[in-house]
Amino acid sequence: MKRSLAVGTAAVGLLALTLGACSSGGGGGTSSSAAGAAGSCTNKIVKPGAKQVTVWAWFPAFEQVVDLFNKSHNDVQICWSNAGQGNDEYTKFSTAVEAGTGAPDVVMLETEVLSSFTIRKALVDLSKYGAADVKKNYSDGVWKDVSSGDAVYAIPVDGGPMGMLYRKDLFDKAGITTPPTTWDEFAVDAQKMRDSGSKALFTDFPTNGRAYLQALFAQKGSAPYTYTASNATDVSIKLNDQGSKDVMKYWQGLVNKGLVGTDDAFTTDYNTKLVDGSYAVYLAAAWGPGYLSGLSGTDPTAVWKAAPIPQWSASSPVQINWGGSTFAVTSQAKDKTAAATVAKEVFGTEAAWKIGIEKGALFPLWKPILESSYFTDLAYPFFGGQKINQDVFLKAAQGYKGFTWSPFQNFAYDKLTEEANAAVVQKTKSTDDAIDNLQKTVVDYAKSQGFTVK
Amino acid sequence: MTNPTVTGAHAALPVGERTPRAVVALNPRVGHDRRRQRFGWAFVAPFAVVFAVFLIAPLGYAFWLSLQTKTLAAGTHFSGLGNYKQAFSDPLFLQGVWLVARFALILIPLQMLVSLIAALVLDNLTTRLSRFARLAIFVPYAVPVVIGALMWGFLYSPRFGPLKSLFGLFGADAPFLLSPQNVFGGLINVVTWQWAGYYMIIIYAALRGIDPSIYEAARIDGAKGWQIATRIKVPMISSALILILVFALIGTLQFFTEPQVLRPVAAGSINASYTPNIYAFTLAFSYSQFNYASAISFALGAVVFFGSYAFLFLTRKKNGLS
User: Fold this and answer.
1) Which 3 state secondary structure label does DSSP give B59?
2) Residue B87: CB partners within 8 Å, gap ≥ 6?
3) DSSP-derived 3-state class of residue A232
4) Can you tell me whether residue A149 is helix, strand or coil?
5) Residue A11: inside a domain, yes or no?
């Protein structure tokens, strides 16, 4: 009896141990693979003996860029996985930062969320790892976006200078001979399109546009935040400036006249409407054309052209930027030098950029290719062979002076979406009240998070 | 908890002499029972380990987190019940609680009615159709909640869904079921579709457990079908009904998946604090406020606990739990 009890307990104990080991081994396996050991890379490792650097990125066609890097480097290999797009990746990264493990060595971040992570000490200052070597390859405005004072927290990759993509066939049908160059002309043309009996709305004003709305505000002079990572507890917030209010009022006018839609962006409905002729104009960033050509349901008679984005003042144009991403090295990286090398060099060659431009429709911020005749003279078949970089996006990129974001940008965007929705779609408050309310909510939030709000 | 088993030889003894052995058998320090107890614990041990590691430990850690405050600028400090004070005076949290309470008040009776009527009707039928109908009503429960919500997102879509063509037949404009006015009803529809089958099966099983001779007696007394259903069947399964109501209450107060999945297509009707669980999720993963999110979660847990306790107390005579 005693023996069978002993055997019984031993068997149960062994089973428990094995099961426990299985689950922890499995769990450890996934976290360590995310952190860099022999784990689950989406790409193939060409030189198995070399140091592995884990990268999270969602660029289209990125796998080919990774393969290019791995073939040309003997000492470092990239282990890439796509951890989600935008916010999906940021929630995973944020959790890993909070947990202290599980973050990759190099992570793709849009410029607007950099300060949200530097304040949590999640990113490494690359000025100690040779960031100055590559500074000359990027314009001042772009470099300002990734630096904070003397510290450099990320290496720029691609940008989103804004332009106007329009359906020339719909314009012709409505009798609009040249695309509008100012916002006043834009409103007039919108009315012309409606008067011509066209079923298309002139464009869409998505209240959930987030960075898109902020870019439109910036065009009229809005510079809402002053913040540096070195002075991390001070922030100044001016969201209710006259520029933002003017822009909101302008768009509300167009919505109230029924000339412009209010569909939310990035939904399947919106994607379909972009390409099937429901909208005549798509105010887009330079990655917009790639986005458009990837959507299905395209109207086969569509003729798309690109033009510069309308201006408030024809004599003093302001160029704006929407989106654009960078590679940052995380503080959880075990070999920071190797990770910094990856961040600096993965998109640091012409060959890599040719892939990024042709297969991924990215807009490079790396000057050697940005200023090359290859890029300037590139004809895009989606636009009937128009050289859109020459015509539109290069000038927009050159004019970009940089922008400062807040360390709680996600919160600010959520509130902006709510307020814009309430004012423009639900019409429960005026746009001025919405913007003022936004200012109050964000200031209260900043104060509750311990910031000194100037 | 050990029931004394009076076996074999003991049963042959007169009752008076059985008792001492029964008393002896009650004492766990004796023989078989003790060894059986140890084996029992050994078999429960793996589950206990998993339970402790994946439920108790995270709950404890979350509670510990909720007692601290971490601001973006200032770092972490111990704040006791400060987060809870903030949670219960946070208008966004309270609005969310009010929303799920209203949701529960409307959804649960509706769900109950639908599943009760379905179960009663199916209980009366014995044809093959009834078996098929049972399966058909249950299938939505087998669909993962996220998939179901995504599906309904497309069904509700003004562009891809059938409503446009359906209403077009009558020459009317299709309503957008996820607009701020309609989203409440739209969500109720999705949840009822998903869960009515589950409750129906439970009620049906309870109905099957009723002795049919009661129905015969009722029919002899002159009761019609409708009266049998309302006066006999429903009262007899009241404990199962209460059980379901508690499940539904707990589940509805923690409403998260459907609104979160439908958020991108709901055009602003569902915001970051629509239900308390969505608010906790946004706080934790979008705003990196893990401590406050833990406090919100526990505050919601407290609301759910009091709600279910109050409900069980109010129905204590009928719920068959005493």
Assistant:
1) helix
2) B93, B292, B295, B296, B299
3) coil
4) coil
5) no
- Binning pLDDT at 50, 70 and 90, where does residue B15 land? low
Whether A12 is in a domain gets the answer no
Q: Point out the least confidently predicted range of A266-270, B199-203, B269-273.
A: A266-270
Q: Which CATH architecture has domain B83-314?
A: Orthogonal Bundle (1.10)
Q: Which residue has the tokens 């019984």?
A: A8
For B38, the closest of A5, A208, A425 (CB atoms) is A5
Interchain CB distance below 8 Å, B268 and A418? yes
- Distances in Å between the Cα of A146 and the Cα atoms of A114, A153, A239 are 8, 6, 22
Q: pLDDT grade, residue A35 (50/70/90)?
A: very low
Question: Is the separation of the CB atoms in B214 and B232 below 8 Å?
Answer: yes
Work out whether strand A51-56 and strand A106-110 pair parallel, antiparallel, or are unpaired.
parallel
Nearest-CB residue to A450 (from B74, B154, B286)? B74
pLDDT tens digits along A210-226: 899 999 999 999 999 99
Residue A254 to residues A192, A197, A205, A273, B122, Cα–Cα distance (Å): 13, 17, 9, 18, 56
Q: Where are the beta strands (DSSP E) in A181-280?
A: 203-204, 225-226, 234-237, 260-261
In this prediction, residue B287 has a pLDDT band, given cuts at 50, 70 and 90, of confident
Q: Which residue has the higher pLDDT, A228 or B276?
A: B276
Q: Do B160 and A268 make contact, defined as CB atoms within 8 angstroms? A: yes
A186 and A225 belong to one structural domain: yes
Mean pLDDT of B233-238: 89
Contact present, A160 and A286 (Cβ < 8 Å) = yes
Structure tokens at A76: 């470092």
Gap between the Cα atoms of A166 and A200, Å rounded:
12
Identify which of A386, A191, A341 has the alpha carbon closest to the alpha carbon of residue A280.
A191
Which chain A residue has the Cα nearest residue B35?
A5
Exposed / middle / buried, residue A25 (Cβ in 10 Å: 0-12, 13-18, 19+) = exposed
Say if CB A283 and CB A309 are below 8 A apart: yes
Residues A232 and A343 in one domain: no
* Residue at A168 is within a domain: yes
Please list every residue in chain A whose beta carbon sits closer than 8 Å to the beta carbon of residue B72: 119-120, 407-408, 449-451
Mean pLDDT, chain B, rounded, equals: 85
Region A288-303: mean pLDDT is 78
Please name the residues in contact with B8: beta carbons below 8 A apart, sequence gap of 6 or more. Answer: none
* B66 close to B289: Cβ distance less than 8 angstroms: no
Q: In terms of domains, do A208 and A264 share one?
A: yes
DSSP A50-107: SEEEEEE---TTHHHHHHHHHHH-SSEEEEEE---STHHHHHHHHHHHHHSS---SEE
Q: Does residue A165 contact residue A284 with C-beta atoms inside 8 Å?
A: yes
Does residue A256 sit in the same domain as residue A186?
yes
Using the 8-state DSSP alphabet, how is residue B30 labeled? S
Tell me which chain A residues have a C-beta less than 8 angstroms from the C-beta of B70: none
CB A407 within 8 A of CB A225: no
Residue A242 lies in a domain: yes
What Å distances lie between residue B51 and A9, A68, B24, B39, CA to CA? 20, 47, 35, 19
Instruction: Using alpha carbons, select from B311, B190, B295, B322 the residue that is nearest to residue B250.
Output: B311
Tell me the two tokens of residue B288.
Answer: 């990196």
| Residue spans of beta strands (DSSP E) within B141-257 | none
Q: Do B72 and A407 touch (CB under 8 A)?
A: yes
CATH number for position A299: 3.40.190.10
Reported ipTM: 0.77
Same domain, A48 and A174: no
- With a cut of 70, say whether residue B87 has pLDDT above it: yes
Instruction: Find the domain containing A88 and state its range.
Output: 34-159+324-376
Q: Is the pLDDT of residue B295 over 70?
A: yes
- Residue A452 CA to residue B73 CA, distance in Å, equals 9
